[in-house]
Amino acid sequence: MVSMLTWLLQRTPIEVSVLRDRNALYRVNFEGLVENPYTLTIINKTQQLVHYRVAISGLDVAKLQSPQLTAVEAGQMKRIPVTVVADGYDLPNKLNALDFVSTAEEDHSIKASISSVFYRD
């Protein structure tokens, strides 16, 4: 009984994972900016529809190209293609750490963060 209560109290209502595009670590767009494509997977472990907003942190010079909000049905999983864009000259290293942060619009205490890497040429 105690272990069941502990499990319920520690259970997170969201699970997030990130995958890099297997074909290319990065690409340079027509403006000369470096792009890194990713696929985020969000699992909604709640019992209601939740709208998630995705942001990045840890790499201030980068911009995230993704949908404003992503709706995920109760108990469902959704894959979201996103792209992070930065000027290669503004990046300190060839490999730069960043975090993807997914936050529920209905309850800002429901959030998850996952780390990844941004590559430049």
In short:
With 121 residues, the protein is mainly beta. It has one helix at 2-10, and strands at 14-20, 27-28, 34-44, 50-57, 63-65, 70-72, 77-86, 95-104, 111-119.
CATH topology: Immunoglobulin-like
Please give the CATH class.
Mainly Beta
What is the H-and-E element order? HEEEEEEEEE
**Number of extended strands:** 9
Explained architecture:
The chain has one helix and nine strands. The strands form two sheets. Strands 1, 2, 3, 5 and 7 form a five-stranded antiparallel sheet that branches. Strands 6-4-8-9 form a four-stranded antiparallel sheet, with no helix packed on it. The chain is mainly beta. The longest helix has 9 residues. The mean pLDDT is 91. A hairpin with a 6-residue loop joins strand 8 and strand 9. It has one domain: Immunoglobulin-like. Helix content is 7%, strand content 52%.
Keywords for this entry:
121 residues; Immunoglobulin-like; five-stranded antiparallel beta sheet; four-stranded antiparallel beta sheet; 7% helix; elongated
Strand and helix map with partners:
Elements: H1 2-10, E1 14-20, E2 27-28, E3 34-44, E4 50-57, E5 63-65, E6 70-72, E7 77-86, E8 95-104, E9 111-119
Antiparallel strand pairs: 1-3, 2-3, 3-7, 4-6, 4-8, 5-7, 8-9
